[in-house]
Amino acid sequence: MRSLKKAVALGVILTLCGMQSFAKEQWINNLRDDFLKNSAIIYTINLRTFNAQDLNDNGIIDFDEGEESGNFLNAIARLDELHDMGINAIHILPVTPVGKMKAMGTAGSLYSISSFDTLNPQLKNENTVMTEKEQAVKFISEAHERGIAVIFDVPACGSYDLYLQRPELFVKDKEGQPVVPADWTDVRLLNAGSEEKINPDVFNAYKSFVDMVLELGVDGIRVDVAHSKPAAFWKALIDYSRKRDPQLLWLAESSDSWSEAVSPYTVYTPYDKLLAAGFDGYYSSYFNLKNWKEGKDLLNQVEHDLNLSKEIGQAKSSIGSFTTHDELSPIVLNGPAYSEMIMWLNATLPVNSYFVDGFDTGDKYIYPWANKKAAKTYTDDEYYFAHRGKIDIFNFSRKPGGKDTVLQEEFKRANLFKEYMVSMYDGGTFTPLKVSEPSTFAYLVSKNGNSVLVIGNLNFKNINNTVVHLPKFNPEIDVISIEMVSAPKAGRSKMEVNLAPGEIQVFLINNYELK
Asked: Which terms does the record give in the GO molecular function aspect (predicted)?
């Protein structure tokens, strides 16, 4: 190889991307268009913990000691941080009121909804005369000023509290009791009806959520367990929203690898039916990366998602669901190398980047008080219920975040590089490459005579030596390394790579293209 250059400075990537400030003078919701171009970089936050003030550093918010949980107003202080990391959209875990009866955790699960058309009073800052709605609008407006779109999450089931208030919304079993879906003991199954006849009571409840979202100026909706309701239900709701805001994004929590209903008492609507009903995108199956042993598994998933629009007959996309609030921290699974791989796959694949608060600094989400008896509770649960290795959604707990500053800088670099990749995919081509070792993957993205080459090792325990086949590749042309540990050896029509466990490498290759 005649020239191999290591691009270590952010300035190099900035030059490549031509990145400008995200901020706009007047906010116009373009989230749906951006999502369908795979240019969204989405950061998931639990507003209740996002900027929580844990002054005594015990991991729990002690209100009696003057500590403050996350809320709409104190969250504004972290928006510049997100902007500086390259985030252009935030997915906020449910901001609707939560149930307190038969609850899980001392604050109640965010997904145990007790009202569809009001905001969670836990997210209100009491040190102001502003109403909670005004505080929410202020937060959204401040996000927009920084070029950050806002996505609200709508839960799939109702709390026991809501069941007692409005039993007509719920499915009943043979004994007339509300149905508990899966093992989610704090919620009850909503009766959305069937494809032939949707339940107007449940539909109107969700419609009231859409009305609230649009009134607040939110840019998109992420739907929890979307497959648990009929396609006809979603089509009617999405059509209703699009008449008021054609750019309102609809993202379905659904996967092509899921095939079972959450309860025998409800429907199962597959991902393709949801997309045909109007959803702009879905979760795909990238969370299976932790289980994939061969590179072809990843590449097959990419090819599948690239064909979505053609199969559905409308523009569709997916998110890089490698890590979500339902997934174990990548650090717990495979260490920092796994996090770095997730960053660069999000940056270089034709997906919308997707991360969870704390991911960028390597938070393991290990809470020493988890599942122990609480000193104080705000529900009928006396224990700090928590999922090991997952961001806490059940208690008033600390702000997410680890201590890995190296990982944080890598996160910024990958997000900056994504803008260049979005331009490459606009009219460019994605080509899976042949490799000599099954546990490695390689792909090339080409456009206008230039290419980006990505190579990775799915073996997180051993070094992997592999040969990547690059038809008609000339080893004398310039190759710029964007992400690399050890330099590869280039030959005619191939590249020999020595990959560390879990390593991913990214290169710019000038004057080389596969069509």
From this structure: alpha-amylase activity
